[in-house]
Design goal:
Largest sheet of chain A: 6 strands, mixed
Oligomer: heterodimer
Number of strands of chain B: 11
Radius of gyration of chain B: 13 Å
Shape of chain A: globular
Structural class of chain A: mainly beta
Number of strands of chain A: 11
Strand content of chain B: over 45%
Shape of chain B: globular
Largest interface: A-B, 25 and 25 residues
């Protein structure tokens, strides 16, 4: 069964501090993993995906298959990073893929 | 146009009412999705349409009836809902459902309250 676990409901840090949002997954095949973000009063949007190996808004995430993790990191948090972050897994079911979300972590960056 | 548009933004309905939620995109995407999101919970997949055909139904009660009249439109028809169906209903689209790393574009949602 495919499952995404985000152990922290809330992560509060000060501006300029490093941030790590944890995500662990369970999937029998080779998953595609994503981070989606929802800023206050804005729609849910893609932040980054593991296959792109990109840095978006200073955030990076590395897929660790040995630890089945896809943690989101940023070296210096900014107040505008405050949002709800969802880790998501795309699982394959025949010809149809399903995007499954974790429970989300609310990041609060204090001034 | 790179947006998914949902109407209405808010909807209040009684348990005997019939209403419809609408979703529209003009990005040429051939996969469209309905998600349900309760407060402080992650989005939960309800339905997936691929090339206007229902591809996934996540055991959703029949009081929710999806419809995809063409490649740009997705409707969700509501009838005899229960108060526990109150939630934010999100529509999303992607280029297709096959292949990996498909980016989903989400609408801003319809906040539904069932009285």
């Amino acid at each position: 069964a495919q499952r995404v676990t985000q152990p922290e409901k809330l992560l509060s840090v000060f501006k300029g501090a490093p941030v790590e949002l944890k995500c662990n997954y369970s999937y029998s095949g080779s998953p595609e993993l994503f981070w989606y973000v929802q800023y206050s009063r804005q729609r849910l949007q893609l932040l980054l995906r593991h296959i792109s190996r990109e840095s978006i808004k200073g955030f990076t995430a590395d897929l660790n298959k040995g630890e089945t993790s896809f943690h989101l990191k940023k070296p210096f948090a900014q107040e505008e990073d405050s949002a709800m972050y969802y880790c998501a897994l795309m699982g394959y079911g025949g010809a149809t893929n399903k995007l499954i979300f974790g429970t989300g972590t609310l990041l609060a960056v204090q001034p | 146009d790179t947006e998914v548009t949902q109407t209405p933004k808010h909807l209040v309905m009684g348990m005997t009412n019939k209403k419809s939620l609408k979703c529209e995109q003009h990005m040429g995407h051939r996969a469209m999705y309905w998600y349900k999101q309760k407060a402080k919970k992650p989005p939960e997949l309800m339905f997936v349409y691929s090339y206007e055909k229902l591809s996934i139904n996540e055991s959703v009660p029949s009081r929710f009836s999806p419809e995809c009249p063409n490649s740009s439109l997705l409707n969700l028809h509501l009838h005899a809902l229960q108060p526990e169906d109150s939630a934010l209903y999100l529509c999303a689209s992607s280029l297709s459902i096959a292949g990996g790393s498909e980016k989903l574009f989400f609408g801003s949602g319809t906040q539904l309250s069932v009285l």
